[in-house]
Amino acid sequence: MSSYSTLFRRFILRALAREKLRSGITALGISLGVAVVIAIRLANASSLESFRAATESMAGETSIQITGTAGRFDEMILARLGWLRDYGRVSPVIAGLAMTDPETRAGTKPKTGMDAATSFAPKGEFIQVMGVDAVRDRPLRHFKLVRFRDDESQPTPRELLLLLTDPGSILLTDRFARARGLTLGSRLPLLIGDRRREFVVRGLLLDEGPARALQGNFALMDIAAAQLAFNRLGTVDRVDVKLKRGLELEAAESEIRRNLPSTLVVTRPESGYREVEKMIAAFHFNLSALGSIALLVGLFLIYNTVSISVITRREEVGALRAVGASRKLVLALFLGEAVLLSIIEGRQAVRVSGLHLGYSGLTHARASGKVLLAYGPPGTIEAYLQSHAMETPTRRTVNDGGALQAEAARTRAAGYAVDEEEFAEGVSCVAAPVADGSMAIGISAPSERFRERRAELIDTVVEIASMTMIPSLRSATA
Length: 478
Fold this sequence. Notes:
The chain has 16 helices and 15 strands. By secondary structure, it is an alpha+beta fold. The protein has three domains: 2-51 and 281-343; 64-267, no CATH class; 363-473, GAF domain (Beta-Lactamase, 2-Layer Sandwich).
């Protein structure tokens, strides 16, 4: 072994130090190949998780859904489904996609005539529109208004009902409104089908429940107004049912299925996610194949550089063989070089003691953990406080429930969370929500380096996180 170590230092390490360009290209090929494969796998997981979370947030507390065999169905059938109330709360729903005018901002005048017709080329943002009965839907989905009046008071049920019954009224998420410079009373033109309709913003929704779907690109309307807007008068897309407590889901689902007309079917909210998963399976396969090709390209690059390394040192190899070195020893030397290049890392690599792959502890002390708590479903922080002790690994760690709630509010407002020596002394981190907030991405660095480049690191993380939105639901550009 000592002879191998001596030969490795003199034969391999000296050559690597002497031929820096070849060594660097080889290491770069390995890094790029592996990085692309990992990135594509993360993209696959992120897109599926986004669809799943969007499906769950839109469904709220819905247990089962009733749809037509061919999609939407005649609303007159609802009159014959009164017996569904014996099983729980029932709410008819209209759902559809609309597109915004990319040139419309608060204070701008809507275009008319030919300008209006040409301004709606497909360059806007998609927005999910849901039409519900404000009274029937309250037990199934929780909508909380950030602003309803200038005095920021909450509406009474009667005021909310009167507000939504106006066919020109629409409720947007606060996140979407802030991004587009909209406020109460602003006019928002939407392209629905082949028609342009203009709505007035009557309220702003808090970023929770269905309002979290599709990165906040969500709008709420009265079901009758939605039927008119989407030209679906006399039909509904589905009926959501929240079962009473104590009813077994499978038994109730079976009974309801038997009693329904043949034109209606029973599904569960998660079935929509499974359908989407099937539809994008080919897309995921293509991404994975591209990642594998990238890895093969990296391997080919490594093979060529190692081959060049062998060829350029054939005289030295011949000398080793002449003095008695076996073929296995020569092979072991070059394999050792390949292993060394595969595990080499930068001189400023950061490792946090106690933080390893799959670690899920001390959520309140980590930037990524704060993001997950802030963007989790309602009650996430309360559940965490009940089931976890507020441990303090450092003197900077948040150790109070009220402070954690305040930190979560700051995280949602800023769009990112920071951990400055709260998890480990000398280490700081910034993290931002990925996709719908069910995952997070972050950067850790020594605190001194973090403070020097704080703004740059925050901008980098936020920018990368924003790229994880589903392409078909992001701002579409021609």
